[in-house]
Amino acid sequence: MARAHINGIGIDYDMQGEGPPLLFIHGLGSCKEDWEAQVAHFAARFRVISFDLRGHGASDKPAGPYSMAQFANDAAGLLHALQIESAHVVGISLGGAVAFQFAVDYPGLVQSLTIVNSGPDATVRTFKEKLAIWMRNYVVRRKGMAKLAAMIALRLFPKPENRAERERFIERTSRNDPQAYLNAFAALIGWSVAERIGGITCPVLAIAADQDYTPLSMKEAYVARIPGARLEVVNDARHALPMEKPAQFNAVLERFLAT
Which residues form the AB hydrolase-1 domain (predicted)? Predict the structure, then answer.
């Protein structure tokens, strides 16, 4: 593990392997440890960088508010600190949204873009969505991160054979500072770069789990708006796809990066 001073805060990161730079961006309430199976697989051929977003993991947790542009700027600052001119960028969930923001704000830093179970828009449109946001805030403030982690884990890893992954998720998510978590959550709600994604010119792959709680139709719609982008669906999988089915996920990503 290493640490870089970026935009006035400490960002914790890990870098392994040699070759083309490959940057992984984790999801809300997660950390760089979520990418362990990908780091182990890709470090033989890539210079793999994973890091903790501000407010997450071992990175600093400054007072909010946070913003998606700020997260993207931190990622750009990390690449500059590591003297990396550009990287293949992979993001899941919140990390996928950060990756979209990164690609439209810093196109010269992105060799290719892989979006996992995410999209370019988090606009709140329905009462059901508003209720879900209220409920998550309520659970974090009144019940704590451990309760939220246990609730989410059952949706992400429902199968008995994924018990170890479920327990790791609960342990990692429970570590979160509640206010920093809510700051990051608030940064995502209402955010959108949907009107800018048509200008992305690097190769783009969207990877979707068939049982993800973000609709496949949404992913099909935004992929159609990005020139040359393509979508691959992994069956019998859920939101935390890289952890739930690492072999299948790594194979899909490896095929994309090879082209």
Answer: 20-139
